[in-house]
Amino acid sequence: MASIDTAQSPPRSFSFNDPVVRGVIYQVVVAVLVVVFLVWIVNNTAINLKAQNKTSGFDFLWKTAGFDISFTLFPFDRTSLYWQAFLVGLTNTVLVAAIGIFFATLIGFTVGIARLSSNYLVSRLATVYVETIRNIPLLLQLFFWYFAVLKTMPAVRDSLALPLDTFINQRGLFVPKPIPDEQFVWVWAGLAVALVLWLVLRQWAKARLERTGKRFPVFLGGLALTLVIVGLVWVVSGASVTFDPPVLNRFNFKGGLELPPEFVALVFGLSIYTAAFIAELVRGGIQSVSHGQTEAAQALGLQDGDRLRLVIVPQAMRVIIPPLTSQYLNLTKNSSLGAAIGYPELVNVFTGTTLNQTGRAIEVIALTMLVYLILSLGTSAIMNWYNARVALVER
Amino acid sequence: MTDIAFVRSEIEKAQPAPRSQTGLVAWMRKNLFASVSDTILSVIAILFLLWIVPALYGFLIGRAVPPGGTVEQCRVENVGACWAYIASEIEFFIYGFYPMAEYWRPNIVFAMLALIGLPLLWPSAPFKVVNAILFFVVFPIASVVLLSGGMFGLRYVPTEQWGGLLVTLIISVVGISLSLPMGILLALGRQSKLPIIKTLCICFIELIRAVPLITILFMASIMLPLFMPQGTTVDKLVRALVGVTLFASAYMAEVVRGGMQAIGRGQYEAAAALGLGYWRRMGFIILPQALKHVIPGIVGNFISLLKDTSLVYIVGMKDLLEAVKTKNDAIEWASPTQSVTGYIFAAAVFWVLCFSISRYSRYWERRLNTGHKR
């Protein structure tokens, strides 16, 4: 009789048919190939750089950039350093992305809801918008807005006057600039206090609803509270806002806020393009909530507003929000197309001008990619956290 | 009892529905003027249409200069689209700087694409295997030989001279045909149980998806020559192709992975229980179901790829968009509506391509719908 030990664990002979053995072999082969490939690339790069007499390293960031940037949020001139140019590009990217996201969301939700409208004309117009915009490359749309629309605007002297002291011409959009005086900090403080009180009010109303069943109009109450507090503070502190309108001088507008045509075209193009995709998400999200949910909510006796707010919208949002964030991310990445129409964002300032001047291709491209990588990974981390929070709890 | 005067033996015909329930009036009442807010919206929409339709008609047709017109006709005040400009430059938009005497070569490639490619898209066309071999093996080789020449007595045409729609189509077709298999491999790698392969695939996919296509194209056009051994030069078109394909395959991998995750574990286990090896399990059981789930996603990626080919303009390639933009600055056709007309033309070309792809995917969705959908 064989011993019990051998019967329980038969001798594991080495066999190529064993999936575990094969798995190890495959991985070793792949790992070796990848390492060899990387070594080959690094070696080639080192030889190539040496042959071209190029140095490497990030020390160039502390050298004088020596170029000017047409649109900056903070002072930048020829004597500034490369890392400041990097920062200018980064802030310009973030600025245009933030404004683009705001308008894209606004247009996208409007069009998405319009596509579901029972009104034939409205839903058809929304469909035409989505199908037209989605199927035309963004770069082409940017060129259209920039070269075919904004660049063919009249010269400064014959600017088109729009309402509210706004002018549009070849050099961009000129809007009045609000100038708050020193007392205006108090108004901001008042606004902050009011918003905190709004949150407190919401908590209180919720607690009361659960205790007594009585409702309290939180939104209207909160709005009234904010308006009263801000209004009172404004009057008492004597704060005031003066508007500095753009005035046509002999050659150009003086005063006001000047938005260059590159910026306007980029915001226009990005918002209109991304809005078409957001509209489709919104439509899909609302349609994904089955009609039974509406009927069930009605059967529970919920009012119209509550039905939307408590039953339909939360379920639709669970479907809409994850792809919505990736659309926001796409918009941020697409803002790099601003480089093609001369908007000084990260790719233009850094991968364009800086790379050309310093020749540090690897460092510059790596740094640019790192910025987008951090933005993306950060967003997806937040998204995963949100998804875990709203995911259906299944037993 | 028998004095019943009249007994109906047939059912009387139903009366037509009341006038208010049928016809145009009822349709309008239901779809346009159902409520006060609906009526307001409809009025706004009608006013908008009354403004935009005549304006568009006037610009595109009414006041436009038809093909064959002269540049002087385009240079008047308040002129519409200058189609004469498009018509006179159409060859540049299609072929770029490709030598005029050799236009027949790209023409043959276009014809081959239509003759070999379209039957492949048509499910009931016969000889699928032969057709696929023709398209994936013979067609690429024949196209490269024909377009670049340098053998069989054909004049050599460097890729710098290729341009316009030709380049746009080359990049899209190559990108589409390479990115799907690469994406499937990456997705399989990401779902694999082997830790090293899985990590490599995840890193590649996430890195590519996190950065904009422009930076990848910059990397391909600036850094690829640095990575190669000294003395080797990589053709500019190939650099762009590498960048676009890598980018698209990472997105494709995520779509395919989504489809694979939508398939129940039972399918994997049943395939394993049948004693099939890994590649047969994937090829015969998992992937056919997974890919069917994600056709809209795959086609969406194809459409984005087609649109994204316009970005190669930024790294100095001469695609359709570049051709249009170059000619928009041409002095001989300088007129108030020159650039608008050019961009409308390019937009129309892209729109027709993308829209027909998306219609085609609807067709496949219906065809593959095996009734499992709720």
TrEMBL record, chain A:
- Domain of life of the source: Bacteria
Annotated Gene Ontology MF terms?
Answer: transmembrane transporter activity
Q: How does it sit in the membrane?
A: Multi-pass membrane protein
UniProt domain ABC transmembrane type-1: residue ranges: 90-383
**Any Gene Ontology CC annotation:** ATP-binding cassette (ABC) transporter complex
Keywords (A to Z) from UniProt: Amino-acid transport, Cell membrane, Membrane, Transmembrane, Transmembrane helix, Transport
Q: Which GO terms describe its biological process?
A: amino acid transport
Compartments it resides in: Cell inner membrane; Cell membrane
Where exactly are the transmembrane stretches of this chain? 20-42, 81-114, 126-148, 185-204, 216-243, 263-282, 364-386
The family database entries (InterPro entries) matched by this protein are listed as:
AA_ABC_transptr_permease_3TM, ArtM/GltK/GlnP/TcyL/YhdX-like, MetI-like, MetI-like_sf
Chief place of localization: membrane
Record's Pfam families?
BPD_transp_1
Q: Which family does it belong to?
A: Belongs to the binding-protein-dependent transport system permease family. HisMQ subfamily.
Q: Could you tell me what this protein is called?
A: Amino acid ABC transporter permease
Q: Which organism is it from?
A: Devosia insulae DS-56
Automatic annotation (TrEMBL), chain B:
Q: What is its main location?
A: membrane
Membrane topology, as annotated, equals: Multi-pass membrane protein
Looking up InterPro entries in the UniProt record yields: AA_ABC_transptr_permease_3TM, ArtM/GltK/GlnP/TcyL/YhdX-like, MetI-like, MetI-like_sf
Which superkingdom does the taxonomy of this entry point to? Bacteria
Annotated GO biological process: amino acid transport
Q: By its UniProt entry, which Pfam families does this protein fall under?
A: BPD_transp_1
Transmembrane ranges, per UniProt, are 40-60, 104-122, 129-152, 164-188, 200-225, 237-256, 340-358
Specify the ABC transmembrane type-1 domain's residue ranges: 165-361
| UniProt-listed SUPFAM superfamilies | MetI-like (SSF161098)
Entries under PROSITE patterns matching the protein? ABC_TM1
Q: Which CDD domains match?
A: TM_PBP2
Note whether Mitochondrion occurs among the keywords: no
Q: Name one GO cellular component term.
A: ATP-binding cassette (ABC) transporter complex
Q: What is this protein called?
A: Amino acid ABC transporter permease
